[in-house]
Amino acid sequence: MAVNEKNLQFEIEDKPFSRVLVAVDQDDSSSSIKAFQFAVTLASRNKAKLGIVSILELEDLNVFEALSPEKRNEISSSLLADVNVYVKIAKEHGVKEVEGFVAEGKPAPTIISDIIPTFKPDVLVCGSKTKHVSKREKIFIGSQASYLAQNSPCSVLVIRK
């Protein structure tokens, strides 16, 4: 079907987001920072509540860290402190309502199964490590961003650095 004015007659409504969730990752600070900056701007302009989540990846821990409750608590506390820095910065940049989340597990599945049902965002913002394939010049998004985009019950915006 060819596009013409006749079949494009509809009203465009302003549909602001009321709840924005952003995933930040300690391991990929550059794309996480870009995603965070975008989410803060989006939340501020829409006067939306902002959720900030970071997941402690248990696979990244060595055996001692994984088996030691004290060490896991220490690492989790450090992650929570990092999220609280993001919360503080978001508030300083005009976002009135901000909530931080920390969980353990595989990042994308944990965000889908635990954080999204709790926070109920309209949109999820995440960063992506970009992989270039030289021969075809294709760009692929990272596996976590891809999983989130394919499985999230809300819209997903993938921000590249």
TrEMBL record:
Ranges of residues in domain UspA: 17-160
UniProt record similarity statement: Belongs to the universal stress protein A family.
Protein's name according to its UniProt entry: Universal stress protein UspA family protein
Superkingdom of the source species: Bacteria
Listed Pfam families: Usp
